[in-house]
Amino acid sequence: IDINLEGEIAGVILDSPDMQKRVKQLDYGVDFNGYFNAGVMLINNDEWRKNNVTQESLSMINSGKIFRYADQDVLNILLNGKVKYLQRKFNNKTTLSVNFDAEAKNIDNTIIMHYVTPNKPWYKIFKARYFDRYFNVSPWKNNRRFFAPSPSEIRLKAKREISGKNYSIGVYHYFCYLISKVFRLRF
């Protein structure tokens, strides 16, 4: 990716319209010029260091003030007016659930897919075929991937499969749930 940040501290992607509305209600004494999602940023290291962003961020976080969206709020405050806005394809946010496959709806023109919930694609229980495809050709392809982050996710998967009349898959997942719950095992 070759993007000229034109002297700005970072390249960022605007957060969702819903988030833009929510942050207007926060009282930080800053008029945000486009609140961005800090999960994916292209950083101009020279400008970042020159503006002492790391130290300033840590000072704000450790100040005792509560920031509703934690480090994301702090970075939006510090970098306000000092960023270049990039296309959404560089931070295409999606969610994962045992109940649906949102990843497939968000793939058109995506360069970076950002999984924004605690449900991460490295757990096998979540449908994440695009992650799987790239994981399987990555340097980490031989690393162990756990089945689920918690027994409750396995139970949800069992319920979904049974309600969809996939009884054998549902019973299998329910059995895995019981084993992981009773014996505190991770699959």
UniProtKB/TrEMBL annotation:
InterPro entries: Glyco_trans_8, Glyco_transf_8N, Glycosyltrans_8_dom-fam, Nucleotide-diphossugar_trans. This is Glycosyltransferase family 8 protein. Belongs to the glycosyltransferase 8 family. SUPFAM superfamilies: Nucleotide-diphospho-sugar transferases. Pathway: Bacterial outer membrane biogenesis; LPS core biosynthesis. GO terms for molecular function: lipopolysaccharide 3-alpha-galactosyltransferase activity; metal ion binding. It comes from Salmonella montevideo. The keyword Glycosyltransferase applies. Pfam families: Glyco_transf_8, Glyco_transf_8C. Its cofactor is Mg(2+). The keyword Chloroplast does not apply. The lineage of its organism: Bacteria, Pseudomonadati, Pseudomonadota, Gammaproteobacteria, Enterobacterales. Signal peptide: none annotated. Residues 128-181 form the Glycosyl transferase family 8 C-terminal domain. Keywords: Glycosyltransferase, Lipopolysaccharide biosynthesis, Magnesium, Metal-binding, Transferase.
